[in-house]
From TrEMBL:
ATP binds at G87, G89, R90, K110, D122, G123, R173, R180, D261. Keywords: ATP-binding, Magnesium, Manganese, Metal-binding, Nucleotide-binding, Nucleotidyltransferase, Transferase. It comes from Marinobacter excellens LAMA 842. The gene is ydiU. Mg(2+) binds at N252, D261. Transmembrane segments: none annotated. Its EC number is 2.7.7.-, 2.7.7.108. This is Protein nucleotidyltransferase YdiU.
Amino acid sequence: MSTNAFKVEHRYLELPDSFYTRVKPTPLSQPAMVCFNHKLAEQMGFHVKDEAEWAGVGAGVELLEGMDPVAMKYTGHQFGVYNPELGDGRGLLLWETVAPDGTRWDWHLKGAGTTPYSRFGDGRAVLRSTIREYLCSEAMHGLGIPTTRALFMISAKDPVRRESIETAAALMRVAQSHIRFGHFEFAAHHEGPEALKTLLEHVITLHFPHLISLPEEQRHQRWFEEVVERTARLIADWQAVGFCHGVMNSDNMSIIGDTFDYGPYAFLDDFDAGFICNHTDEGGRYAYNRQPQTGFVNCQYLANALLPIMDEDHVRRGLRRYETTYNEHFKNNMRAKLGLEETDDSDMSLIMETFSMLHEHRVDYTRFFRGISNLHRHGNAPVRDLFADRSAADEWLERYEARLKTETRAHDEREYLMRQINPKYILRNYLAQQVIMEAQNGDYAPLKELLKVLENPFDDQPEFEHYAALPPDWGKHLNISCSS
Ligand code: AMP
Ligand code: MG
């Protein structure tokens, strides 16, 4: 195995001991490689000829020289309730590497067995949920939305009990950082100001190097503002693409603003503003239209954790960045989705009316925006056909066409750019479900094909047209189990 093109570091171990526990993975038996992300490996600084060589690492049977696995300790607010008992319950940070281009990568093996933070869990991940995480992190990356990545995944023979007996699997998840808001909550509420400051400086040094030279007060203030801004921008991106995370607990919020921890997530099919993708979230706390507010609440938890070492006014000022950043980024996203270049005072009302109309008529979100990206190429039939009530479509199209008259760009150019932001292909739940069923029968080819399609979601890819179809009736509103 040649891994010599990257440098090994394990800077997380520089944090105080209380931030982690050394744990060896519990081996899985007879591992098979399901999927390996060769492009990502190249980017990380290595090349793999024989994928199978990595199966042992994925199964926790083999550790490479320099790997020093730890379970990270963090806490967090789950559904609004503080839980001091959290931490990596089934994932281990193996090491950190630095690619030739200077990018840092945490290697986190998810499904590696129990740790001191497993509570009642078995430390395992199942094939179904591991495929879901692999697919969605790569789909998000294809869409240009910040996310953790999937390097490879293995399946194993060990049975894992969920609602039924399922197949064990493990994911090598990589990201620039696995530090969560919950790490700060842990430091603040259990370790004291010194540990908190150490954590803060650690994060700045590794992930916000442009702030290092600022004087301390300013450095901390700017850093918090940036975290808030990244979070707001991330959620504005989710809303624009119709992504519902499902478990926006503060332990699932990345400090660098990545989409983090894929569980019962969903991309909207028929637009429903109040859509709840997590069937255990009965109150709809994390419904699609509550995500922007929830992002803010999570920033408030982080803000609270920073009070022991930061000036309260500075923290407040940082929090205020959320709403302005969110609104600006959301508006820019939606204006680009609608192909608007000129500014017009009524644009925000057009955006809000568009959402109400999509909600009222339960229009397929992705096909609608892709359809209006092709109005002058393919005509309005593909858009009208999404409506049971064609007159509602006509009414909206009339208003939209009138607005387009104030634009100066050529139709072709506008629509070309719209197709760079309105994806043709998204990871619909039923598509994930189909490839999971095939994989459970031992066929990984459909999974690999779907991954290939989602790599370029904005391209027409005529040979894969069927992946852009409306979901079949069975595939709408699938009940995605939270047990992963
Ligand atoms: P999640 O809802 O996946 O973000 O997980 C919340 C917490 O439960 C984290 O601390 C996880 O490490 C832990 N956890 C989730 N599933 C398991 C499992 N099968 N075994 C042990 N811990 C788990
Ligand atoms: Mg989690």
